[in-house]
Amino acid sequence: MTVTFLDLTSEAKNPPPPKTAADGSKVNICKTVNGKVVVRDPKKITGIGIHQTACVFGPSNDLTARHRRALGVPIHALAFRDGVVAIPYPMLWYMYHGNSLNDFTYGLEIEGQYPGLLDDPTTPQREDVESTWGKSVTPLDDLTIETSRAAIKYLYDEGMKLGSPLQFIWAHRQASETRRSDPGAAIWKHVVLDYAVAVLKLKTEPNRVWKGGMPIPSAWQPDAIGKY
């Protein structure tokens, strides 16, 4: 499997335009001062924040146009399901990707709608449906796993080059009271534990939370104590 990187940073506007919320209001996707995006101190960035997009980006006859949809997502890397990692914004830009994690992480989104819990066929109600609010589930295939791992490696390598003392990887749910399934059990196992921890030697802090966030559930990580 081949992973391709698409650097979109030369196309990024400073500041990026706000996105339109469901109620039609405009929402900023980055922190600005004097009309420009805040540039963070790399020495204060200690980890990577990991997310799922909770959607699959619509098809396009022009694949590059599909990947350019990363411009507008407040993130530092976006792993698409077709083997492309888009880099929409400079690493040090202050993007609103993860609540309290914004200050001290590089953010990665993984394309797809993944369940917070894996389905247990012995239970009456399917946990995967319950933990995706009834939406259809995206299979986490080998290409998506490989692409996500490559994206983490990119953020790790580039962050270290910038002088960031990267030690940790955290889930968005740890800093949000509404992102219970972010990034989901399968991503946490195959991308975080089996690669970011096992290979890159990053550490998780499963019981740490920020401002209403939720700890990593024991269903995701054996030494965690949180409930889903």
CATH class: Alpha Beta
- Biggest sheet statistics: 6 strands, mixed
Q: How many beta-strand runs?
A: 10
Number of helices: 4
Proportion in β-strands: 15-25%
Structural class: alpha/beta
What is the CATH architecture descriptor? 3-Layer(aba) Sandwich
Alpha carbon gyration radius = 17 Å
Count of domains: 1
Morphology call: globular
What would you say this structure looks like, in words?
The strands form three sheets. This protein has a six-stranded mixed sheet, with helices on one face. The protein has helices spanning 63-67, 127-130, 142-162, 185-197; strands spanning 4-7, 19-20, 26-27, 32-33, 36-37, 47-52, 77-79, 84-87, 105-110, 168-171. The longest helix has 21 residues, at 142-162. 41% of the residues are buried. The chain has a single domain (4-197), classed as Peptidoglycan recognition protein-like (Lysozyme-like, 3-Layer(aba) Sandwich), CATH 3.40.80.10. It has 228 residues and is an alpha/beta fold. A hairpin with a 2-residue loop joins strand 4 (32-33) and strand 5 (36-37). The protein is globular and about 55 Å long.
Summarize the structure.
This protein is α/β, with parallel strands linked by helices. It contains 4 helices and 10 strands, in the order E-E-E-E-E-E-H-E-E-E-H-H-E-H. The chain has one domain (4-197): Lysozyme-like, CATH 3.40.80.
